[in-house]
Amino acid sequence: MNFHYPNGKRYIPKTAALKTNSIKNKNDSYSNRGMTLEEDLNLTNEYYRENNIAIIHKKPTPVQIVHVEYPKRSAAVIKEAYFKQASTTDYNGVYKGKYIDFEAKETKLSQSFPLKNFHEHQIKHISSVLKQNGISFVILRFTITEDIYLLEGDKLLTFWNRMLDGGRKSITIDEIKQYGHSISVGYHPRLDYIKVIEKIYSFN
Amino acid sequence: MNFHYPNGKRYIPKTAALKTNSIKNKNDSYSNRGMTLEEDLNLTNEYYRENNIAIIHKKPTPVQIVHVEYPKRSAAVIKEAYFKQASTTDYNGVYKGKYIDFEAKETKLSQSFPLKNFHEHQIKHISSVLKQNGISFVILRFTITEDIYLLEGDKLLTFWNRMLDGGRKSITIDEIKQYGHSISVGYHPRLDYIKVIEKIYSFN
Fold first, then answer.
1. In a domain, B83, yes or no
2. Any B CB within 8 A of A93 CB
3. Pairwise CB contact (< 8 Å): A60 & B63
4. B90 belongs to an annotated ligand binding site
5. Which residue of B has its CA nearest to A12?
6. Which of residues 57-76 of A touch B (CB under 8 A)?
7. Where is this site: Transition state stabilizer (chains A, B) (predicted)?
8. A77, A97, A137, B72: which could form a disulfide with B133 (CB 3.0–4.6 Å)?
9. CATH code at position A52
10. Region B133-160 average pLDDT
11. Over the range B48-85, which residues count as b (16 or more CB within 10 Å of their CB) and which as e?
12. Which residues of A touch B87 (CB under 8 A)?
């Protein structure tokens, strides 16, 4: 029952992901077992919430609802709807009073991360969040090597603007290593990105 | 093409709301013209975003997608989906670096605001946000009088706990006037709740 967005990204129903990857599952191992970045982040955010470390949620998939039916004695059924492009990044929430906002993306390439993974309105949103002194970043995963990096929003904007100025349409792996921060894959939490932002930003 | 949630709340497609109530419309007047609280807040947040005052969005309606079809040469169509109960409040974002989180509710009553308007998981979310030092509140609207109040999250929790302890299942209008903060309806922005939170909370 997996289907794909127009952009080729696999859609994973939330409940299915939770059932398969419950953090109570004793068979969990440190290996990544083919989990997507989204599944790893959902587990991580669940861990953060349950332990009052941070309250961060993935936003629901935006859907344009066109037709709904109301069968007697059962729940309303949406019979026609379309995927809409999100106007923000996918994840946001609060850590120590501060606003946290990020987007997570994967690539099958190994030497660079294509900027076409981001939409212009997401870049605009990141820019707006930075102007409001929010904490904004992206989490980039290289599926082949399973390497994961956190790249701060202002750095992403620099690479985006280089592209707009006629420069390369991707960020090289060397640039990501130089300007980004490696996130190691653990058990609980899976991807401890809060540990990274705790080092980068100052919290009262 | 209006339909209703199981809870009786009218569902307003976003694009329709934007078209009808564009803030560029010269025929706009100060009167409320039957706008819902959600429409007013969408216009307010749009105004805040366009003027870099705050970056606050309404979260998409959570939908459980069951079946999608992929017609040739056209967009994917969701053919079966169901409304899900939200696990958070509807609105969140950033103001001066701080995390802002709120829920907006209306009542047709005039003497009290029923607590059944809130779900237990929303109360839990509000409580979690407060523990992370986020700014959490609810916006309450009395549709008959068109009076609108901002009530801080911790005050809502006090009334909620009173109910759990066997007390009344609503907040009286006098209590809301005493503990809440009146929001006047204006033109741009429609409901200037940021002005209220600027008075309540301290910002660096």
1. no
2. yes
3. yes
4. yes
5. B65
6. 57, 59-66, 68, 70, 75-76
7. 105
8. A97
9. 3.40.1350.10
10. 97
11. bbeeebbbbbbbbbbbebeebeeeeeeebbbbebebee
12. 57
Q: Is the pLDDT of residue A11 over 80?
A: no
Would strands A135-142 and A98-107 be described as parallel, antiparallel, or unpaired?
Answer: parallel
- Joined tokens for residue A101: 């906002």
The answer to the question of residue A80 being in a domain is: no
Q: How confident is the model at residue B10 (pLDDT cuts 50, 70, 90)?
A: low
Q: What is the DSSP letter of A61?
A: P
Residues from chain A contacting residue B70 (CB–CB below 8 Å): 3
Q: Does A68 reside within a domain? A: no
The DSSP secondary-structure symbol of A203 reads -
Token pair of B79 as six digits = 């053919």
CB B94 within 8 A of CB A15: no
CB contact under 8 A, B60 and A63: yes
pLDDT for A150: 98
pLDDT at B203: 82
A154 three-state secondary structure: helix
Range of the domain at A129: 3-61+87-200
| pLDDT score, position A31 | 47
Q: Is residue B120 part of a domain?
A: yes
Residues 6+ apart with CB under 8 A from B40: B32, B185, B190, B191
